[in-house]
């Protein structure tokens, strides 16, 4: 299910509901903290599919309750709703132990009422607690009634793991707005549901600003896009997820940090593979770097940036007969000529001193970020060469082979 954004009202709200349903959403949520009764045509929305109406602060309009398939009320405030529609919920204001969570639910509920328990996930280690809480609530209320969710900047992989036993899946349509921090993307959840994996360990990609990533489209499901803050505790997170994931793709800005964390002899890594009780790390970016250098066909090139992608280029350049001149931001003083490679992520602004003298510059990002980088190269006097897809496919083939060996 997806939540109607607060900026959409009237006919725009109906168009949103239609678009969500075409993309695979089954239920539309309306919240009283986001919309007043005059902002939406509840009957028109109801014609587009089942509605969940949620009381958040302001009381639920009677017309909303009448039109809804589900009525969400906080069990500490009121459970006044038709028994066949009731979704009893609680949003804790802190992370709870399983015993604390169960005590909240130690009260009678109508036998058909759904149960939703939500907590902030303040630390990666709390994933195990939420899973235990989910198990115990299912034992109490039944597998067809319970949903347990985490919230926060680290919560997405926890929600992905919990989703396999949850009754309800709250997801985000994408873009700049999300109803809650940590929600999965609708497209990813639908892709997993349609693949109907049978007991497979999850895979995922770890990075920052990775909504554009195509990895979920080409790797087997379930595959999660795990977008984390740049300074987030990625090391502790991957350790807490070891029982639940067979492997991860690692992208900027975590390639160097996770190389150090896994005690890799490599400068940077882009792949984690589960080996029993630990992670083994690899850098399949060398296959991407090989593909790019061969496509460029140059004996020398400058490289803009010195992160994980540059480490892969450096590792393979001698074998491919290409001499690299790695330029950090402070090294750039005058116009650059010849052949180059741009490794800075799209979100990193280039220095104002960067200009090209008709240089041909390979772009190893793809999709919208790659196009934005290409535009920047043109603006600064260079000619972009879009090689991101070649890099991506070459390294992904090797990742798939490695993940098949996970234990």
Walk me through what this model shows.
The chain is α/β, with parallel strands linked by helices. The chain has 2 domains: about 200 residues, Aldolase class I (TIM Barrel, Alpha-Beta Barrel); about 110 residues, Rossmann fold, CATH 3.40.50.720. The protein is about 35% helix and about 20% strand. The chain contains 14 helices and 19 strands. Helix 4 runs parallel beside helix 5, helix 11 packs across helix 12 and helix 11 packs antiparallel against helix 14. The longest helix has 16 residues. It is elongated. One of its GO terms (biological process) is chorismate biosynthetic process.
Main attributes?
Shikimate 5-dehydrogenase domain protein; alpha/beta; Aminoacid_DH-like_N_sf; 14 helices; Rossmann fold; seven-stranded parallel sheet; 407 residues; shikimate 3-dehydrogenase (NADP+) activity; TIM Barrel; Shikimate_DH_fam; elongated; five-stranded mixed sheet
